[in-house]
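Not sure how to ask, but would you mind making up any protein sequence you like and the tokens describing how it folds?
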Amino acid sequence: MIHVLVVEDEPVAARAHRAYVERVAGFSVAAVAHSRLEAERALARGGVDLVLLDLHLPDGSGLDLFRRIRAAGSTVDVMVVSSARDADVVRSAVAQGAVQYVIKPFAFGTLRDRLLAYQEFRNQVGEHVDVDQASVDRALGMLRSPAGGAMPKGMTRETLAIVVGALREFGEASSSQIADFLGVSRITARRYLEHLADTKVAERSLRYGQVGRPETRYGLRKPS
């Protein structure tokens, strides 16, 4: 579970952002802060993995809070969520290590895709995991292109994320297992699995039985 601190001074927006985060599997809201001071107190209590940071706060700039977080030695990840469109502000946020910069207003799908991209980034380069160059490239690619390119017709990013989660839980699975898990046809499940294999997120293997054709199995690629 990824624990999120929502930092947003506007109450309606804060409630919306909280609701958005809690709709994405694997994420929970640790706290909501309406000011820089409240955010600092929440961070001091610990238990936060990701900060959704607004830049316009009543008691100071969100960028100043970002600097204070880094100056304190915290490695908590920060996703800027702001209406600020000034290029210098964006560059400053990126220079300090923002994993994403989302311009308000936005729809649920926009934030969902970026949260799922961040989730996959953590899975690729999580703690206590040795990574190779290919793993780093895939992880950074997920952050830089959260939409991951155009989805094939008839497929949704939300279902794709569920398939990825199922493969992570099963270790490896066949299209029939994924079909049963999702409650869809085997053809639909195979389309998602083949898409993951074609985009190098998953890999195929063959399992030979005593009779009949070998069964294709799918599993997520692991760092070398």
Q: What stands out?
A: The domain at 2-124 is CATH 3.40.50.2300 (Rossmann fold).
